[in-house]
Amino acid sequence: RYMLHLINMTGEMIRPMERLIPITDFDIKLSLPDTISKVSVLDNTLSAELDKDTQTIRIDRLDDYAVLVLE
């Protein structure tokens, strides 16, 4: 089991960040020693689909932060 933390750092250069730009429609290509057969999202903050053949996760939208559980 792996946990993948996704952090959106697209905000303004002023700190503290007041506004984030959502990241949409992107892929994460996995390169792990184990084959992943299931992806779940903690807190259901986004939609994640796993292509088991290519070991690629498709994310619809990341607003600020999410955690994926890879099994």
What does this structure look like?
The structure is a single chain. This protein has 71 residues and is mostly beta strands. The protein has a 3-stranded antiparallel sheet with strand order 1-6-3, with no helix packed on it.
Write the SSE topology.
Elements: E1 2-7, E2 23-29, E3 39-41, E4 48-51, E5 56-62, E6 65-70
Antiparallel strand pairs: 1-6, 2-5, 3-6, 4-5
Q: What is the CA-based Rg, rounded? A: 13 Å
Arrangement of strands in the largest sheet: 1-6-3
Count of strand segments: 6
Sheet bearing the most strands, described? 3 strands, antiparallel
Overall body shape? elongated
Measured between the Cα atoms of the first and last residue, the distance is: 5 Å
What count of helical segments does DSSP give? Answer: 0
Listing every helix as H and every strand as E from the N terminus to the C terminus, the arrangement reads: EEEEEE
* Percent in helix: under 10%
The structural class is mainly beta
Q: What integer is the average pLDDT?
A: 93
Task: Give a brief description.
This protein has strands at residues 2-7, 23-29, 39-41, 48-51, 56-62, 65-70.
Notable traits:
single chain, mainly beta, 71 residues, 3-stranded antiparallel beta sheet
